[in-house]
TrEMBL record:
GO molecular function annotation: DNA binding
Stored InterPro entries: DNA_brk_join_enz (IPR011010), Integrase-like_cat_sf (IPR013762), Integrase_catalytic (IPR002104), MAVS (IPR052787), ZMYM2-like_C (IPR021893)
GO biological process: DNA integration; DNA recombination
Protein name: Tyr recombinase domain-containing protein
Top-level taxon of origin: Eukaryota
Organism: Zophobas morio
Length: 389
């Protein structure tokens, strides 16, 4: 074992590592931008070295960002200006530290034990086992049952449940003012703007579960509200259970204090361990509910454009880390691939055996009829209505 705690890589080794991970096009672009920046500094008589102050560097970059021009004197496009300023800003202000960090991360990604992993999904069997752990007739059991049901159906982020308030839920009514049986949910706070006052995401709904009323999110939510005593002044939905809730003199099921972030953060991991999941081999967290929702919906055939309406992402690229391929999902895709290949082969065989006149007729009419004494010919196995009969 080495006596040195920190690495002993030389500056040349670090530079070589950075060079190895940088694509050639990126190098050429950076060099081109830097040459233009050097010409700008030469025209302005700017000189900077190791003794140049931070204020001076900031002034030079500000001047460059506003006054840069093409060779012909015209302005660059808006996106190009942004790229050029950021590129030179990183080169001047960070002096390669960002590139060194990226090179180190790339090298560590090769090692599975060092690689960053997303929260693992739960199988439906594992998810149902977790739900069976809890008794909704207890404060802790009721809250956790609603958390797991709503967390999956609303695709909550890992820490989203901590910030949920009763103001984020509203019973939906139709145009006549009658309840629809659904509850609208809109997380006014967002991942980047906690506690904002504007709608930042599309609404989602909790719908009545008529198939299994035991895990109906609408029913569980209303039961949670009914157990909030008059002493509750906080609007947070998830509250600290009252240990003395069974006592006749108790104020109610819950204390007037929300569940802490660290406490709620252990819920799914603890439940997974209780049903026998090896949490040392799988990364299980509250965020696993979100990953499970996305993966299961994708397995059911829901498209990415619909998925981002559930997750609240701005584009489909952001949900890629959530799409985790399990054995069943892989088998379904292979099965579809094989079925499609077989169908194409059968179609080619039929086309080879068809007379030319029949091929021409098929191209003109999806469904055609043979002489009046015969039944209609159905090439695409669809329902035929014979209006001549």
């Amino acid at each position: 074992m080495s006596n040195f705690r920190f690495g002993r890589n030389t500056p040349k080794e670090i530079d070589d590592s950075i060079t190895n991970i940088t694509p050639l096009n990126t190098k050429n672009s950076r060099n081109s931008i830097w040459r233009q920046f050097e010409k700008f500094c030469g025209e302005r008589k700017y000189v900077f070295d190791g003794n140049t102050s931070t204020e001076k560097l900031a002034f030079i970059l500000k001047d460059w960002g506003y006054n840069m021009k093409k060779v012909d004197g015209n302005d660059y496009k808006e996106a190009v200006i942004k790229t050029m300023v950021e590129c030179n800003g990183k080169a001047v202000a960070r002096t390669g530290s960002r590139n060194a960090r990226d090179a180190k991360r790339r090298n560590l990604q090769i090692q599975p034990e060092k690689r960053k992993t997303s929260s693992s999904i739960l199988t439906l069997e594992e998810y149902n086992k977790i739900l069976k752990i809890y008794n909704e007739d207890t404060p802790d059991g009721l809250q956790k049952m609603f958390f797991y049901v709503a967390g999956l159906e609303l695709a909550w982020r890992g820490c989203e449940g901590v910030n949920v308030t009763i103001k984020h839920f509203k019973e939906e009514s139709d145009n006549c003012g009658l309840p629809t049986g659904r509850i609208e949910y809109n997380c006014i706070f967002s991942k980047t703007a906690q506690g904002g006052s504007h709608k930042l995401t599309d609404s989602k709904w909790l719908a009545t579960n008529t198939t299994d009323p035991r895990i109906c999110p609408v029913r569980l939510y209303k039961k949670m509200l009914s157990k909030r005593g008059k002493h509750i002044t906080t609007d947070r939905l998830f509250l600290t259970p009252n240990p003395a809730w069974r006592e006749p003199s108790s104020v109610g099921w819950f204390k007037n204090s929300p569940v802490g972030r660290n406490e709620m953060g252990k819920w799914t991991r603890t439940a997974a361990e209780e049903i026998g999941i090896e949490i040392k081999k799988k990364k299980i967290s509250n965020h696993s509910l979100r990953s499970t929702a996305v993966s299961q919906l994708a397995k059911a055939g829901v498209g990415e454009e619909q998925l981002i309406k559930i997750t609240g992402h701005a584009n489909t690229f952001s949900i890629k880390p959530y799409l985790q391929l399990d054995g069943d999902h892989h088998y379904q895709m292979i099965d579809k691939l094989r079925a499609n290949s077989t169908a194409m082969e059968e179609s080619n065989n039929k086309s080879t055996n068809c007379a030319p006149s029949a091929l021409v007729q098929m191209s003109k009419n999806i469904v055609t009829t043979s002489p009046s004494t015969q039944t209609p010919v159905n090439y695409y196995n669809c329902t035929i209505i014979n209006y001549n009969s």
